[in-house]
Write a structure and sequence with these properties.
Length: 182
């Protein structure tokens, strides 16, 4: 419960990073939080095959469009063109369209550690360089993403949960075992 409360309290920050090794319950925690949240959310599960800017951006836009149909129509048109525009053009168009959304929402990018393409990291850096009031981005990862985390920490634009935060305390372990064993 204290982690859910912490996520709620820091929802006004543009980015939440949940970073820990496999098996720490990162995705389970975020799913639980989203179930208790009073704002709409979308989830994108990533894998190694999503290391293409066009594919990644298409999934990002599709997730937003599940919540707000037609909100990213112009970005979607850029993504279906025969030639992908430069990353700066794509991020500017996406930023402008996301900025027009009037309702707060959460977008989760799960397994972000699978993403290695610099152009994708650059797209997210651009989105986070100009934080939007309505979008709260959540990155669930096994390692830190290639973003400017130091800058974001210094400007209180980042909320972080690490392995130490996700680990049970002795009291929590005792409580869990008592409930399990009786």
């Amino acid at each position: 419960p204290h982690l859910l409360e912490r996520l709620d309290q820091r929802r006004s920050r543009p980015l939440t990073l949940v970073s820990a090794p496999a098996g720490y319950g990162k995705s389970v925690l975020i799913r639980s939080w989203l179930e208790s949240c009073d704002i709409p959310s979308a989830w994108v599960s990533l894998d190694k095959n999503d290391n293409d800017l066009r594919t990644f951006a298409a999934y990002f836009v599709a997730a937003v469009e599940t919540l707000f149909p037609g909100a990213c129509r112009n970005t979607q048109a850029l993504l279906t063109a025969s030639e992908l525009p430069p990353s700066a053009v794509l991020s500017a168009k996406l930023l402008n369209e996301l900025d027009r959304i009037e309702q707060p929402f959460i977008l989760v990018l799960d397994d972000y550690h699978c993403i290695e393409t610099p152009a994708i990291h650059q797209l997210l850096r651009e989105l986070l360089r100009h934080p939007l009031q309505k979008l709260h981005l959540v990155l669930v990862s096994r390692k830190d993403p290639a973003l400017n985390l130091l800058y974001m920490r210094a400007h209180q634009q980042l909320s972080e949960l690490r392995a130490r935060d996700l680990s049970f305390s002795v009291t929590e372990t005792v409580s869990y075992l008592e409930k399990l064993v009786g």
